[in-house]
Amino acid sequence: MLTKPFIVGITGGSASGKTSFLKDLLHAFPKDQICLISQDNYYRTLDHVPIDENGVHNFDLPQTIDHERFAGHLSQLHAGQTIEMVEYTFNNPDAVPRLLTYQPTPIVIVEGLFVFHFQDVSEQLDLRVFITAKNKVKLHRRMIRDQAERGLTSELITYQWENHVKPAYREFVKPHKDEADIVIPNNVHYQKGLDVVIAFLKAKVAERQ
């Protein structure tokens, strides 16, 4: 087992396919070898989320994330400590939050829009992976996801996309693409890129055992 976790940061635009990629990545390893910690569970309370000029909350800004807590938990995992926290449910009244447990496994995956943007998070990463897709593909995926999982209307999803999501991607996410060690296109599928990441991480685990 690794003496310290090998920490992998995975980012990309909203609906670029990070969740599906991560699901397949996690399935490639035993549960005692890999742990996923998501930026989505570190949103600040709604009263700390900025409201735009039309009175709509903008969740696509770095200040909506408690990155100090995020980075602190990552440091604790790196030190071999177990973390427990309550899941964030995107203010969905029908969702029942789970108690999440993060174990200091050999591989720790850190995912989210701003994991490269936050210096206190980014400086702890050993590998950086950026998933990319065309805007029309991402919007289609986001429309399906946010209606089904977050109970949003198509009008609100479109508004958020044009006024919050796209500007945030241009300012806070895309500029860090050049910092990535691996860039994975996902307009259709990510399988080849996934295979590369899996093989690399399996080698990392093997060489430190």
What's the gist of this structure?
With 209 residues, the protein is α/β, with parallel strands linked by helices. It contains 6 helices and 7 strands; from the N terminus they run βαβαβββαβααβα. It has one domain: P-loop containing nucleotide triphosphate hydrolases (Rossmann fold, 3-Layer(aba) Sandwich), CATH 3.40.50.300.
Describe the structure.
- There is one protein chain.
- With 209 residues, this protein is an alpha/beta fold.
- It has a single domain (6-207), classed as Rossmann fold, CATH 3.40.50.
- The chain is built from six helices and seven strands.
- The strands form two sheets. A five-stranded parallel beta sheet has the order 2-5-1-6-7, with helices on both faces.
- Helix 4 packs across helix 5.
- It is globular, with a radius of gyration of 17 Å.
- The model has no long low-confidence stretch (mean pLDDT 93).
Task: Output the keywords.
single chain; 209 residues; alpha/beta; Rossmann fold; five-stranded parallel sheet; 6 helices; 17% strand; globular
Number of helices: 6
Count of discrete structural domains: 1
Gyration radius, to the nearest Å?
17 Å
Shape: globular
CATH superfamily: P-loop containing nucleotide triphosphate hydrolases
What proportion of the residues is helical, as a percent range? 25-40%
The CATH C-level name is: Alpha Beta
Could you tell me the strand content as a percent range? 15-25%
Beginning-to-end CA distance, first to last residue: 5 Å
